[in-house]
Structure formats: structure tokens, C-alpha cells
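Sorry to interrupt, but I need a hand with the structure work. Leave the record below and I will have a look:
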Amino acid sequence: MRVIVTRPREQAQAWVESLRVRGVDAVALPLIDIAESPDRAAVGAAWAGLLGKQGPAAVMFVSANAVRAFWAGAPAGASWPAGVLAAAPGPGTAAALRAAGVPPACLVQPRADAPQFDSEHLWPELAQHDWAGRQVLVVRGEAGRDWLAERWRAAGARVEHVEAYRRRSPSWGHDEWERLDA
């Protein structure tokens, strides 16, 4: 049996190698590509707000792609502000945040024994904080689920979104077209 990894090209090869080490016949066939947001000024403005005096109490990153795209728009020399929570729905996003320089004390993620890594399992960790009147920023692609934003709003937070990246159809080479035909 062959496993086809459909993650974006930047992530697919690591998954393929991990599966092959475990004896699984795996190949990459990316079904989406991650591109820069068409509104880079919005990412810059989000960074300015994050680093300002009245910045958000928390920033939720929907994926590792969101982390990488947001940091690509960081001002030179920027570092994560003390006391601002960085929320991650799972271990991949949390690892990307640590690699970007977010201190472990600022990182919020689902418990390691959570049955699933998603917003629903992240919320119990976030719900321990008082959100009344506080600002939250959600870093995502051009659209996304609003379940977590709705929880924050119900808890009294003001939620803003910034589009840090966009999804698009991949551009395949000859090998990928042959893999699809096979």
C-alpha cells in the first residue's frame, strides 16, 4: 500500500521521510500551495499593534503556515512581547512558535494527552484566563473557522483577524503529474 502525502510542498517531504523511516511507502503530491498574503501591509500593521502599548493579550496562530507567514512580515529585530500569549492548536504550530522565538511561558496549546489537536481542545486551556475587554488577534489564511473566535467573544474579548497567507493551487512538475496519472 502506498500513502500519498497531500500537505503543501514545504511540509510534505518531512512527512514522507518520517513515514519511510517507519517502513511505509510514501510519496508527496501537494494539493495546495501556501503563498504570501496579497495584503502584506495588514501583517505589518498587526505586528505594530502587537508591539505597541495597547497590543493584544493573545495571538492565535491557526497553523505552522500562519506562524511562518506572520514572522516573514516581522520588523527587523522584533521579538515576542512579554506577557502576550501565543496560542497553538497543536504540536506542529507550537514547535513553529518556539522556533520563531516565543518563550515557553507564553505558549498555550492543548494538553499533550488531548484526544485531538484543534481549537476545541485548545479552548479549555484558554478559558482559564479572563478575556473580558481584552483584545485577541487570530493569524490565519484568507478564511477559516470562527469557532474559537466565537468562544472568545462570548467571554468578552474583542477579536481581530489578519490574513498572513493564502492558499492556492499548486504548480506541479513532470514527476508530480506522472504520480497523479499512476
In short: The chain has seven helices and nine strands. The chain has a mean pLDDT of 93.
